[in-house]
Each structure stands twice: as C-alpha cells, then as structure tokens.
Design a protein that fits this description.
It is a single chain. By secondary structure, the protein is of the alpha+beta class. It folds into 3 domains: about 40 residues; about 280 residues, Porin (Beta Barrel); about 35 residues, no CATH class. It is about 15% helix and about 45% strand.
Length: about 375
C-alpha cells in the first residue's frame, strides 16, 4: 500500500519519542559501560598519589636519604643520669643498596642536679662536666624492605663533679671522678614495631670515693625495649632492664617507658618514666633537633624517606649514658646505724670472713676486708 506524503510525515513524527528513548538508553548504557571499564583504574590512581609505606621503602635509593647530619640534644636527670645538653652527629661510612655502615657520636655538658634531688641517690652532682659517647654500627634492610636490622658497639665516658649530700649528712673531701663503659646494641624496626636490646658494661675502676661518706659506682645495665608506632608522629615504648653494681647495692630489675612526639622538621620531644628499687620512680624529659639530613627537610608529605623503616637507618643509637649510683663509702667504716655495709666484712663468731649479708641488721662489729 502506498502512503501519500502527509501520511509519511505523520508516522515519522509519531516515531520521534521512540527514537529519543532509544538514543537516551544507548547514551546511558555507554556512560555506564565507560564507568565500569574505568573503575579498576581508580584505585591505581589513588595508590600512585598516596603510596603506602612499604612501597615507599622499596622505591627509595639509600644514597639519596642516608646522609651526614648533626643534632642538638638535651635531657633532664634520670635514674643515675645527669641533666645534660650537647651535640651529636651521624656519619654514614659506607652505603650499599640495602645497608649502611655508620659512625654515631655525641658530646655533652653535664650540669648540676636539681636542688636537693640527687640523680645518683645521696650525693648531689655539681658543677659542669663532660661526657662522650661513640657508636660504630651496621644497619641493613631485608629483601622487601619491611624491616630494618642493626648492630652497634662503642665506648662511653663520663666525668662527674660532686657536691653536698641531699640526705642531711655533712660531707667533706668532695671528689671529682670519671667513669668509662663499653656498650653493644641490637635493633629491629618495622613500620609499626621496633625492638632494641642493649648492654652497658663499665670498665676500669668502676667504684670511686665521692667524699668522706659516700662511694659511687658505675652500673652494668642490660635491657630490652619494645616500641609501637602509634601514628606517624607519636611513638611509645616499654622496656625491662637489669642493673648491677655499686658493690651490689643497686642490683635488681626495673621497668621504663618512653613517649616521643615528632613535631616535624627534625624537632622531637620525649618523656621518660622508670622504676627500680635502687632509684625508685624517676621522671625525665628530652628534646632533640636534627640538621642537615634530607630525612628532615620535609619538602613533601609523599617523600619515600617518611617510611619508619627508612628513617630508622639514620636514627641516633639509644641508651648510651654511664649510669652511676652511690652508697656509704668504705672510708666511713660502717653505716650510721652501726651495721656493716656491702663492701665491709663483719665478725660473726669471731671469724671476719662472712660477707655483710650474713650479719646485716645484727649489730656485728665492722672491719675492713684484710684487717
């Protein structure tokens, strides 16, 4: 059947809504298909802009971030350690793809104790003296750079000026003394956890007469800290230590906690809390400011060196103070209550060969060993 022109026009006009509907459906289908086909690429783009720490660590070239730097440091007195301020430096000696040999050194001025609160128990630390610390170390990354491991060893020294006693006992013949120790340490750091084992071992003459009443001794200290990265700026750790020395007066276990806050650009604040029977509870604080290391220039929050594993490669070694404790000196013969003290033998049954522990509190007569 043939249609006349007017009928053709009428049918064409009636089909326009259908054509529009078809075009709209095709358009929506195309948009949906494009969105679905693009979806797998969206996470890839986000990942590229904000790569996780493990990818950051894999991409970084150690020679770009492990560089010489130096720092200013300060700390308030703690359990056997003085008020101090000084300078330190970190120097990479040899860098390869996944490891570095380094030298870490510090020099500090030690200041007088807080008035009436001895850092070594009885005798106040006085004046201004010098302490030094040096560590030679080796740090390396595992294959996927998810952990950094390290080992270090070194030598520490501490000169100590002494003043009055904060026990109310009048002292004379105040001495300025010095102590030395060797130290070793082991480290393991991930982007979340960190572990630090250490040993501080005094050498040479570890017991010194401080005045006519007290004698001070450098302490052997062996410890392990376990830390957790709470967020990129805050790190907390809890530790156990065993100390020995000062003629056995300070022997025993202790615990310590540390909280550090990184303000950026190399500035870090810390707070420390420790407890043991020899020193009781001690609270101290510390501050450090690092210069000259690319790690702390903070040019961009996306820099690969921000991964904690990478930053740990240039961190200063911890636990390096020579710790000192003081008790009654053998020069005084016996303690004020008439009982013998640890480095003095006493008569029990007429035989001056039994250590003090056998007659402590019994009022036995005190004698010098060999007398």
């Amino acid at each position: 059947m043939l249609l006349n022109p007017s009928q053709i026009i009428t049918q064409f006009q009636s089909s326009i809504p259908v054509q529009r509907s078809i075009r709209l459906s095709l358009s929506l289908t195309g948009v949906a298909a494009l969105a679905l086909s693009s979806a797998p690429f969206l996470p890839a783009v986000a990942k590229e802009e904000n790569p996780p720490d493990d990818l950051m660590a894999i991409e970084v070239n150690l020679k770009d971030v492990v560089r010489f730097d130096w720092s200013l440091r300060g700390a308030t007195q703690g359990a056997g350690t003085p008020n101090q301020a000084g300078v330190g430096f970190f120097a990479p000696l040899f860098i390869q793809d996944n490891n570095v040999w380094f030298l870490d050194a510090q020099a500090n001025a030690n200041f007088a104790d807080f008035d009436g609160y001895s850092s070594i128990i009885n005798t106040d630390v006085a004046g201004v003296s010098l302490s030094t610390s040096t560590r030679l170390g080796y740090r390396w990354l595992n294959d996927d750079r998810s952990w950094m491991y390290g080992v270090n060893a070194g030598y520490d020294s501490r000169d100590m000026d002494t003043g009055n006693a904060d026990t109310g006992v009048k002292v004379t013949n105040k001495q300025d003394v010095s102590f030395r120790q060797v130290a070793v340490g082991l480290e393991a750091v991930s982007n979340t956890w960190h572990f630090n084992a250490y040993a501080l071992v005094p050498i040479g003459d570890t017991e010194k007469t401080l005045n006519n009443k007290y004698e001070g001794g450098a302490l052997d200290t062996y410890g392990l800290d376990v830390g957790y990265q709470i967020n990129p700026d805050v790190n907390a750790s809890l530790g156990y230590y065993y100390q020995r020395g000062d003629l056995d007066e300070a022997d025993g276990s202790g615990i310590n906690g540390h909280l550090a806050y990184d303000l950026g650009n190399g500035l870090t604040f810390g707070a420390n809390l420790s407890y043991d029977e020899a020193f009781d509870t001690r609270v101290s604080g510390n501050i450090s400011y690092r210069f000259g290391n690319n790690n702390y220039a903070t040019p961009s929050p996306k820099k690969e060196w921000k991964a904690p594993v990478i930053r740990a490669l240039t961190e200063a070694v911890k636990h390096r103070d020579v710790r000192v404790h003081d008790g009654y000196s053998s020069a005084s013969g016996c303690s004020p209550n008439g009982y013998s003290v640890e480095y003095i033998y006493c008569y029990t049954g007429g035989t001056p060969k039994t250590p003090y522990s056998a007659c402590w509190g019994k009022g036995s007569a005190c004698v010098r060993p060999n007398s």
